[in-house]
Specification:
The protein is an all-alpha fold. It folds into two domains: 30 residues; 121 residues, Globin-like (Orthogonal Bundle). It contains nine helices and no strands. The longest helix has 25 residues. Bound molecules: protoporphyrin IX containing FE (HEM). The site of protoporphyrin IX containing FE has 20 residues, from helix 5, helix 6 and helix 7.
């Protein structure tokens, strides 16, 4: 009797450990914010950034700034990775941005208001293309506005 109770306890323990391990795999510890989820997580943001770069390259107001970048696939990939991480982190995702500060990244480029606005419009176009709601676009836009003073030069 004692032996079978012991065995029962063992089975219960195995089930409990198995269930907990399963839950751990199914639900990531940090799934990110609701906004991050609505954007489709890391995959969704990658798609937005891919579309965004395509729109920027076709935008005559600002594509000149990216002429050197566009000549190196490695550089384009690094920029994309940095943008995905920056946007992911800004919307409460699981990414960590490891690139330069916005000031250091853009210093000396001579970026003016007109360029900044064009780039933000291109990002909005990429977000719309991916079905992001106007409310979420406003939230993301709101997070970008404070960066303007570090990017635009007088
Ligand atoms: C909210 C606005 C902007 C954000 C969030 C942003 C973000 C970034 C990031 C994350 C990087 C990479 C930094 C690194 O290499 O560590 C970068 C680089 C760069 N940005 Fe921006 N940027 C913005 C506006 C602009 C504007 C308006 C222009 C020009 C029209 C511009 C042109 C560039 C260029 C040319 C690079 C260098 C790319 C390379 O590494 O080859 N950015 N930006």
């Amino acid at each position: 009797m004692k032996k079978s109770l012991f065995r029962l306890g063992g089975i219960a323990l195995v089930l409990l450990v198995g269930f907990t391990a399963c839950k751990k795999n199914d639900v990531p510890v940090n799934a990110g914010s609701a906004l991050y989820q609505r954007l489709g997580g890391n995959m969704g943001i990658k798609k937005v950034v891919d579309d965004f770069i395509g729109i920027v390259v076709a935008d005559n107001v600002i594509n000149g700034f990216f002429a050197t970048t566009a000549r190196s696939q490695e550089r384009v990939d690094r920029l994309k990775m940095n943008l995905v991480n920056q946007i992911g982190q800004a919307v409460g995702g699981t990414e960590t941005y490891t690139g330069l500060s916005m000031k250091a990244a853009h210093v000396g480029m001579g970026i003016k208001d007109v360029h900044f606005n064009a780039l933000v419009n291109d990002l909005v176009a990429a977000l719309k293309k991916n079905g992001v709601s106007d409310a979420d676009i406003n939230t993301i836009g709101g997070a970008l506005v404070p960066l303007k003073t570090d990017i635009v030069e007088p």
